[in-house]
Design a protein that fits this description.
2 copies of one chain form a homodimer.
Chain A: E1 3-8, E2 21-25, H1 30-39, E3 44-47, H2 51-60, E4 65-68, H3 89-92, E5 96-100, H4 104-110, E6 116-120, H5 125-133, E7 139-143, H6 152-164, E8 169-171, H7 173-185, H8 189-194, H9 197-204, H10 208-214, E9 224-227, E10 230-233
Parallel strand pairs in A: 1-7, 1-8, 2-6, 2-7, 3-5, 4-5
Antiparallel strand pairs in A: 6-9, 9-10
Chain lengths: 236, 236
């Protein structure tokens, strides 16, 4: 056993563990979009809580791209919504993105006191596991949830990461639970996630295609790391 | 779909749903002991929060048996601990038991406003499922947890019940998660539960044998139902 692994199913449960790496997970869709943006050459992603903060950042620095959602939809005056497919290389390479979402950006802020804060989703799960294998002090997988409530897809992503680390991790009850959940769901992952409340809402407002994309495992190799309020690609 | 099914992983998350049947689950060991006591002819189980309440009840009614635990151990002055194997027919038939435990009796009290409150564990899961299939208004599976925290064995028992009702239930995200968790864990259920924090504690204080017993599925057919503060066998 080389690392302790814990999972928090909702941000409210999260206890600051300053010696840990906090792994923030918001599969549908914030951390998937953040990972894809960074992977596509975005210089920095700045998560902010409020729409007004994002608009103010553009006042200061007119070159930034504004992205995010409220009620899953594009915010008036913003450039991009919260669909990971919008954060293409053509759009984000070399640019800075200010992003505000309902759950993911709040969870990132909640984790801010951890030794290291990284963003994870299915698309970069393999890279996150490689990072955690080399970390000291353990990892805490923080599910963003949906409006404070348990979110199935985030718990399943935590479960994928926990499953893959079971050979080296001393797992908490919630980590054991998440790993079992992933193992029980993996053969029908998309079908199960599509029956979740958040996925049904996304499909209803026209984002069904995002769900399949957000569940794709190990698409990219980047690990976005949060430092001084800004997410960038992990150096190395 | 005939019933709505929800799962609360901790009592703190539980929202009163007065139209629902609340199914209180404390596998290790309170609801397993309660189910076994009722199955063995115990006339009534009275759950109380405090040791002093239990002692006071015996002052009023010297004939009652006092059972329960603090720190998993027998409470000084009590007749029985919290091991389901203690609640045998020889000991409890025709008697009333006042019980106080760290998690299970608190969860029963938390659920008290629900239309119907029943006690469940692996040992009576089949009977609970049969009851829920006939209920109207849906079911909420309330995991007692351990000192307010997520408890693996309770979530897995909720998952067993949710799995078995998947043909008739409209499931919440947590119900889907619990069902997937059970499906992922069932082939190694005992091994996984034995690595949980509560099970390791129980084994350390001499109750390893209880764990195997508490995970046995469908041992008895009774459904304890709470009415006017007292658990009795469901009539019928």
């Amino acid at each position: 056993m080389s690392i302790n692994l814990d999972v928090w199913f909702t941000p409210a449960e999260y206890k600051d563990e300053q010696e840990q790496t906090a792994v923030v997970i918001d599969v549908l869709r914030a951390t998937t979009s953040i990972v894809m943006a960074i992977s596509n050459g975005c210089q920095a992603v700045i998560p902010v809580a409020q729409v007004e903060e994002a608009l103010a950042q553009r006042e200061v620095c007119p070159d930034v791209i504004l992205g995010g959602e409220r009620g899953s939809l594009l915010i008036p005056g913003f450039d991009l919504g919260n669909s990971p497919r919008e954060y293409s290389r053509e759009v984000v390479a070399g640019r800075k993105v200010v992003i505000t979402t309902t759950n993911g950006t709040l969870a990132l802020r909640r984790a801010i006191k951890a030794k290291t804060v990284i963003a994870a989703s299915f698309v970069n799960a393999g890279a996150v596991c490689r990072f955690l294998r080399q970390t000291s002090g353990g990892g805490g997988l923080l599910c963003a949830g949906t409006k404070g409530r348990f979110s199935l897809e985030d718990a399943l992503c935590a479960g994928l990461i926990a499953s893959r680390l079971s050979d080296v991790a001393a797992m908490s009850d919630t980590a054991l639970a998440a790993a079992a959940m992933y193992q029980g769901a993996q053969a029908h992952l998309r079908e199960i996630v599509e029956s979740s409340s958040h996925a049904r809402h996304l499909a209803a407002v026209g984002f069904a295609a995002d769900i399949a994309f957000c569940l794709t495992h190990d698409v990219v190799d980047v690990v976005p790391i949060l430092a001084d309020g800004v997410l960038k690609a992990m150096p190395g």
